[in-house]
């Protein structure tokens, strides 16, 4: 029996995790990535314990830990600085997207990733055993398989990185808007914000320190609609598998996008250690329910943050919830424990 061949379309976190895992199981793998090279700048990612354990199964967990840092505890506040509750970071590990991609790409031989290469399903299906669609929320691979709706959440996201060190991160929630800070390992700070479509960053001008200082230091600012994907009937069709945002793009409120893409890639590779068709069915069975639950919870949290009336009641509920669950910094520790373990 000859070596099996996989084509991965998309060289992001999930696509590279799948490529590393498949090669460890004897597959020939080619990754088509439309960018010219790995990025050298990017915001911070919080990698939860399940995702770190998935990287451990690739033999890359220690490398990821070395290039990042443990995420420090944070605080949930009101715009005037009043504390709503503490956010215990637990075992979340923080590293930048370029650092994570560098760890994954460094585990692949030269030539596996073909940069500057665009590819579609029709051009890749012949002559390979599996095609992996890891090409993001606007996935062309998914579009060839399913008529899936990319939906607007009704919110706009903003993000950037500044040379303003902060001792600890956290989030501040106002009326329909929020602002978050995450210290990076290099002393800089990743910031992000959510507003309504008609708002701009001036809504944060009189919020508590250091938010105005961070925005004053902001250079390049990314602004984008916060989108999410309608649930798919399957992550597999024929010998094509979808993963990451191509399969279950969710709003960023749980901070789980990169984590779930890593887990997708590792589980897919593990399922494909044996029979291909049975492995693809097993992958869909393991990952679709868990990620659908997370996507739904993330959208619920997004809607809660966008409340403009009754914020005093909302904040009181959050205060009680944080007191009862002090180790849920991204609101998903219980989901991770109870619903992703299997």
From TrEMBL:
GO terms for molecular function: monooxygenase activity. Keywords: Monooxygenase, Oxidoreductase. Gene3D superfamilies: FAD/NAD(P)-binding domain. It comes from the Bacteria. Transmembrane segments: none annotated. The keyword GTP-binding does not apply. Residues 6-72, 234-297 form the FAD-binding domain. Pfam families: FAD_binding_3. The keyword Oxidoreductase applies. This is FAD-dependent monooxygenase. It comes from Saccharothrix hoggarensis. The lineage of its organism: Bacteria, Bacillati, Actinomycetota, Actinomycetes, Pseudonocardiales.
């Amino acid at each position: 029996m000859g070596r099996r061949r996989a084509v991965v379309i998309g060289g992001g976190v999930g696509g590279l995790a799948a490529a590393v895992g498949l090669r460890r199981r004897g597959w020939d793998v080619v990754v088509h990535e439309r960018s010219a090279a790995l990025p050298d700048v990017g915001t911070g990612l919080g990698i939860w314990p399940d995702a770190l354990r998935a990287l451990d199964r690739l033999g890359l967990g220690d490398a990821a830990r070395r290039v990042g840092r443990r995420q420090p505890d944070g605080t949930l506040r009101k715009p005037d600085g009043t504390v709503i509750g503490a956010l215990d970071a637990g075992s979340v590990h923080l590293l930048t997207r370029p650092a994570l991609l560098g760890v994954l790409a460094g585990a692949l031989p030269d030539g596996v990733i073909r940069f500057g290469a665009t590819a579609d399903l029709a051009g890749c299906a012949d002559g390979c055993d599996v095609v992996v669609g890891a090409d993001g929320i606007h996935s062309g691979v998914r579009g060839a398989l399913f008529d899936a709706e990319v939906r607007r959440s009704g919110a706009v996201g903003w993000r950037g990185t500044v040379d303003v060190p902060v001792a600890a991160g956290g989030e501040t929630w106002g009326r329909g808007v929020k602002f978050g800070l995450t210290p990076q390992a290099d002393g800089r700070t990743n910031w992000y914000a959510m507003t309504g479509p008609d708002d701009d960053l001036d809504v944060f001008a009189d919020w508590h320190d250091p938010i105005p200082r961070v925005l004053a230091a902001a250079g390049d600012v990314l602004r984008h609609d916060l989108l999410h994907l309608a649930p798919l009937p399957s992550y597999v069709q024929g010998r094509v598998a979808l993963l990451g945002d191509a399969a279950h793009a969710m709003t960023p409120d749980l901070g789980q996008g990169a984590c779930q893409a890593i887990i997708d890639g590792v589980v897919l590779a593990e399922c494909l250690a044996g029979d291909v068709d049975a492995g693809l069915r097993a992958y869909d069975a393991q990952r679709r329910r868990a990620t659908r639950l997370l996507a739904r919870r993330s959208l619920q949290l997004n809607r809660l943050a966008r409340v403009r009336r009754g914020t005093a009641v909302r904040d009181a509920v959050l205060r009680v919830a944080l007191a009862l669950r002090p180790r849920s910094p991204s609101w998903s520790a219980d989901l991770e424990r109870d619903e992703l373990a299997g």
